[in-house]
Amino acid sequence: MVGFTSPPRSLAELEIRADRLAGLSVEEVRVLVGKRAPEEARRAKGYVGELIEVFLGASAGSRAEPDFPELGVELKTLPIGPNGRPTESTFVCTIELSRLDGSDWESSRVKKKLDRVLWVPVEGQRSIPLPERRFGTPFLWLPNAAESAQLQRDWEELAGLVVQGRTPEITGHLGLVLQVRPKAASSRSTRRAYDEDGAPYAELPRGFYLRATFTSSLLDARFSRLAEAERDDRGTEI
After folding, report:
1. Alpha-carbon 99 to chain mean position
2. The model scores a pTM over 0.85
3. What is the pLDDT of residue 22?
């Protein structure tokens, strides 16, 4: 078994490929795809995601579109702690004012990224060396009506503040499932932004993130469906 060199042709094919990740360690996947390990831990950010992209045949690269553009599927790793819960919020995309100004939810990058997501759980405990961390069973998620409505409400509130030049007012407390957080290596990584009067000021780059409580609810829903399926199977056997 090696990484796939061509993109999957259907959702079913993508899910079959993803199922092969379950139980493998990060090091085992690295060997399978022939990718070099990062020399320093601080350079490992995004490394696991890159391994999975190669393994599954993702073709988007660094382009601003879903990782599997032919299928409209975004790939997201989900680090899981010993309690079975996500250990961190999930980055969705960077905030680009030129893309926000004049756009609506339907045309937003956030919606395009979250229309279909392949979640890949992976052990996230820092006590486990990165090469030894194992993958869980990936699952495909499409937002239901309630989830889509809440994502839209959060995006409209947060994007509205950004477009009005009120980014400094945004805190991590805003947004029920979606939030805006700084996305920069350090406080020196600033860029020019504008307040509501059009005056420029230095601002940290920011991005949209899904709250860990939201991704945790997705895991709960997934486990509930699996448990129901198992009960149905047992009932059929009887």
Report:
1. 20
2. no
3. 96
pLDDT of residue 224: 77
**Residue-wise pLDDT tens digits, 179-214:** 998 875 544 445 554 444 444 444 567 899 999 999
- Per-residue exposure over 21-47, b if at least 16 CB sit within 10 Å of its own CB, e if not: beebbbbbbbebbeeeeeeeeeeeeeb
Q: Which helix (H) or strand (E) holds 201?
A: strand 200-203
Percent of the chain scoring above 70 in pLDDT: 76
CA distances (Å), 81 to each of 105, 124, 137, 225, in order? 32, 5, 15, 21
Burial degree of 154 (CB within 10 A; 0-12, 13-18, 19+): buried
Classify domain 11-237 at the CATH class level.
alpha beta
At residue 36, the pLDDT reads 85
Cβ–Cβ < 8 Å for 133, 122: yes
Contact assessment for residue 75 and residue 67, using Cβ atoms and an 8 Å cutoff: yes
pLDDT given for residue 15 in this prediction: 95
How many Cβ atoms are within 10 Å of 97's Cβ, its own excluded? Answer: 16
124-129: long-range contacts, CB 8 A cutoff, minimum separation 24:
124/79, 124/80, 124/81, 124/86, 124/87, 124/88, 125/81, 125/82, 125/87
For the stretch 55-76, what's the b/e string if a residue is b when 16 or more beta carbons lie within 10 angstroms of its beta carbon? bbbbbbeeeeebbbbebebbbb
Are 79 and 123 spatial neighbours (Cβ–Cβ below 8 Å)?
Answer: yes
Q: How far is the C-alpha of 117 from the C-alpha of 149, rounded, in Å?
A: 17
Q: Residue 188 has what DSSP assignment?
A: T
* Residue 49 confidence (pLDDT) above 80: yes
